[in-house]
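Annex B. Sample input.
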Amino acid sequence: MIHFQEEKVSVPEDISVISLGGLEIGRYIYPHLTTIPLSAYEQGKKCAQILLDIIEEKKVPMHSKIKIKPVIEGGSVKRINI
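Annex B, continued. Sample output.
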């Protein structure tokens, strides 16, 4: 965010910024970061299951999904109408 301020880039008017992982620091940055919370526990659980499947020579999908909590809206993303 500091870099954008130094370069005179307006957040969110010129660029939108999001955080992945639900970092607490997002509340202390201006504008507040819009955050997609990701659970390290859920990610680790999914990774462990995939590793066990590989070890057991089971078919492993190329992509995997994990449940996420709703997005925490801040002021770092501009709404667009499509």
